[in-house]
Amino acid sequence: MVSRSSYTSFLDAASGDLLNFPQTPRTLPRVMTVPGIISDGDGNGSNDEDSDIFSSKCREKKIIVANFLPLLAQKDLNTGRWCFSFDEDALLLQMKDGFSSETDVVYVGSLKVDVDTSEQEEVAERLLAEFNCVPTFLPPDLQKKFYHGFCKQYLWPLFHYMLPMSPEHCNRFDRFLWQAYVSANKIFADKVMEVINPEEDYVWIHDYHLMILPTFLRKRFYRVKLGFFLHSPFPSSEIYRTLPVRDDILKALLNADLVGFHTFDYARHFLSCCSRMLGLNYESKRGKDVQEAKRETYAITERINANFGFPGYEPVVLIDHPVPFYEKTAYYALAECCIVNAVRDGMNLMPYNYIVCRQGTPKIDEALGITSGSSRTSTLVVSEFIGCSPSLSGAIRVNPWDIDAVADALNIAITMPGLEKQLRHEKHYRYVSSHDVAYWACSFMQDLERACKDHYSKRCWSIGFGLSFRIVALSPNFRKLSLDHIVKAYKRVNRRAIFLDYDGTVVPQSSIVKTPSPEVISVLNDLCDDPKNTVFIVSGRGKNSLSDWFAQCQNLGIAAEHGYFIRWSQSSNWESSPLLMDFDWKRIADPVMQLYTEATDGSYIETKESALVWHHHDADPDFGSCQAMELLDHLENVLANEPVEVKRGHHIVEVKPQGVSKGRVTEKILSTLISDGKPPDLVMCIGDDRSDEDMFESISSTIYSPSLSAPPEIFACTVGQKPSKARYYLDDSADVLKLLQGLARASSMKPKCSTQIQFSFESVA
């Protein structure tokens, strides 16, 4: 479901044909599964269907997309001709060193200068021919709203933890700026589409300016090989959630195959946001603006120089203009100490540049009068809150908010013995020299290649619309279970085993009424009345509830509490797990669950004979999900030495005995049937959540017994289109009921051949 903010922003952005995304059709289109071969789809032409017009024998190409091209541009005022050259100091240019020499690198981005509309076509042709660069000429008004507006007024401050602390520093969220951001990203997408071969090329998008670009590209090419790297911090969920378009940006980033961050902390923040705001599971306005910060910096400089300087000497030299590369190199080479004391920053490269310059080169040594081969020194003071801090173990780390500690650190760095300065420098230089831009670029591309290697072995479905668009990629054998297909097999065999989950399978997960409907009772009785069938409800619910609800089903087997209790029919007794169970762990787990129940409105505890379950489906979605994660961690810690498993399911956290699962109980039932000389010729298993995946896996392993002459036909089916161990899917519980009713009709039908023989004898008589 699309949130209100997502829906509204989509409508705003879509005005003026900025986004031309149709609503998802009920029948999802299928797309190309191998290059050049298209499976039946809806023919809208907006996916990979036209990608086979490109040659698959082109050189490997990587398309680097960033806000600005790695170019320097200047116009000759006399001739009026533009002069371009590569910016040798640009990170994007240095990345090429990490790629194979056989790789073509194409850059897509804007120029840092305005080019008149009449000159844009000529400039674009020159840049592509001479520099392999594709310029994105944004209209000046759009550029202002996109870059100076949304990027610099909202994203940059937010990602650097600058929240409005008073009304004087707060502007209401401007959706026109958001619309400009969407429009600009769309223009970048159009430019990428001009040069991409979607079957072969890799696209690497850089930084927060282009965070919704992955959605535009994924919408156009389902299997585009797409990476994104954020060159700034990613804030914690408490900060990020203040952004009104938070969901749109998260969903767009998830359309990339690989998302990279400076540090593990930033990656963890991103995953936490996806969990708390989108409900996803995973394994493993501004207190000051830029101008105000500049004014404060100038004021501090003037105060220090007035108090401690004298004619001809200023303690602080403030440089507030672009510094040429050679000039920066000179500053770094001369400085005995470098301090980077930001309160929040991304992977600031200044400390690395300083270390390399202090190591020197023959020309630097000659200029400074240093003997070649002599020992080198450097000292660093870095803020704990910058991305490079963890990788500089020899630096003096400081809390930038603690002024006294910063002053002490500077004093220590300057007065440090020469040998210690040398050892710290050598340690840093070994790391920096082996972990350069080329190393990072190569590592990222290797990860991206691994993430994309199965693109053409999966079938793809498009889900959602607008900025909520995404792709679900599943096994090529994963398809909807056809009633005609299973009925043919159902009629053909003599013995059948049918396993059905309860919640979310035979009754809707969202239903308030949890008791089975009369239609469900009727169809189960019809199936159970067929002597060829063994039918089981396999559920996590308690045996008393299931026994009461299915009291009218005399021949129905029930496996309750994930198989801890089992009953073959209503006339048989309940059997419990043969495992010797000690339930003293409940006295540990129950108080912990009670604590979280009191703190989470809408949650409650379900007590079973063999398990405890904490439900939070009626709680606030974000808060309930967050509490569930914390409860999971809490219970795993306090129950670490107990013979139990702590599992998180759909709006639940459950503690149950080890060795008890739906997979084990289906394995037991099938083994019993085989040992009794009644091996099934067909096994059908339908379920909707994680616990049912155990059933899908177990039926595949159990039925391949050496004692069987031929393996049975297997129909493992999940409810809903999602990654699963099942080969088939049905859309919802209504589809499940229709399927069961179709099988029940097949059971009640008499063979046509017997009727024809009877008529034949009557005619003879």
From TrEMBL:
What superkingdom does the record give? Eukaryota
This protein's UniProt keywords: Glycosyltransferase, Transferase
GO biological processes? trehalose biosynthetic process
Query: Does this UniProt record's set of keywords contain Transferase?
Result: yes
Spell out the molecular function terms from Gene Ontology. glycosyltransferase activity
Q: Return the similarity comment.
A: In the N-terminal section; belongs to the glycosyltransferase 20 family.
Q: What is this protein called?
A: Putative alpha,alpha-trehalose-phosphate synthase [UDP-forming] 9
Organism of origin is: Vitis vinifera
Q: By which gene is this protein encoded?
A: TPS9_1
